[in-house]
Each structure stands twice: as C-alpha cells, then as structure tokens.
Design goal:
The protein is an alpha+beta fold. The protein is 40% helix and 21% strand. It has helices spanning 2-32, 63-75, 102-111, 144-152, 168-177; strands at residues 39-42, 45-48, 81-88, 113-120, 126-133, 156-161. Helix 4 (144-152) links the parallel strand 5 (126-133) and strand 6.
Length: 182
C-alpha cells in the first residue's frame, strides 16, 4: 500500500516538473520570435490583433424581435416581471459536475443564448425563456442541446414564430399558460 502511494506521488511530482519545463521552453521560444502585433487565441485560429476590424450593429435585435420585445415589455409593464434580450444559456444554467464531457458542454452553453428572458423584477429570478424561430428562413429552429438543457434545468420556455407573431391578447394568454401571473 505504501509503495503505491509513493509511486503516485512520484508520478505527480514528475508531471509537475514536466509542466514547468514545457512552460519554460515555450516562454523562451516565444521571446525569440517577433511579430508586428500581439497574437490572441480564438479557438483553433490564430489572429493578429492588427488585422481585427469590427463595426457596430444597427440593433441588438432584428425588427421582428424588437416587435416581440416591445409586445412583452408592454404586457409586463405594470407587473412584477421584466424582459431581457439575448441572455446566454451559460448565465442561466450550470452543468451537473458529474456529467461526461462537462467542459465541452459548458463551452457550448456559453455559445448559446435565449432570445428573450422573463424574470421576476425583485430578484431577477429566471421564470420563462422565449425562443424564436422563423422569419424568412433566416433563423433556424432552436437547437436540441439548448432545448434539452433548458428542460433538464426545469425552466419553462415558449417558442414563438417571428414570421407569425401572436396578437397581444394571444401572447398574454400564452404567458399565463406558462405560469406568469399577469
């Protein structure tokens, strides 16, 4: 038993030494090469920061999403609820620590967002997620990973077609059916 513990400790120590050596080798080799600008890692692609260019979008939401947001905002105006656009699933869900591939699952949650989120005003507790689809085939169906993650967390959600928005009264009825007290 004692020999096994010593062997495990020896392996751990060897791994630590190997990591330090690798770090020293990589830092010394990076000092030798010079580049015109700092390099950042964006996944599998290396990008020179001097080559990055961006422009501001006209709006956070599409015209149809704005209409839906305004309808929800109007319905929830004098209630205990508020609506927020574009909330990442990673801000709403925490992966179970015991699931396989937890790191990959967590990364994929960071890439996904719900279109609109209804919360309690007082404590910002998420109550209802609004997923949109449609509008001239530019927006695909909500993906199965998002749906399954939302369902296993016990969150309620509605899927609304952007190319066939419900009336205000119909939307209010859907919100009530989903458990909101409005």
């Amino acid at each position: 038993m004692g020999q096994a513990i010593i062997a495990v400790l020896g392996l751990i120590l060897a791994k630590l030494i190997l990591d330090v050596v690798k770090e020293n080798i990589s830092s010394s080799s990076s000092k030798k090469t010079s580049s015109p600008g700092p390099i950042i890692d964006l996944g599998d692609t290396w990008v020179d920061l001097n080559e990055i260019s961006s422009r501001q979008r006209e709006s956070l939401l599409s015209a149809e999403e704005i209409l839906l947001f305004q309808m929800l905002d109007s319905i929830l105006n004098n209630s205990n609820y508020a609506v927020f656009p574009k909330v990442r699933l990673a801000d709403l869900l925490t992966p179970d620590p015991n699931i396989p591939n937890r790191g990959e699952y967590k990364r994929r949650l960071q890439e996904r967002a719900v279109d609109l989120l209804i919360v309690e005003k007082q404590n910002l507790k998420p109550l209802l997620l609004i997923l949109t689809k449609g509008w001239q085939n530019k927006k695909a169906e909500p993906d199965q990973l998002s749906i399954r993650s939302i369902e296993t967390a016990g969150l309620r959600y509605l899927t609304i077609k952007l190319d066939d928005l419900p009336s205000t009264s119909s939307l209010m009825q859907k919100l009530r059916e989903a458990g909101l007290n409005i």
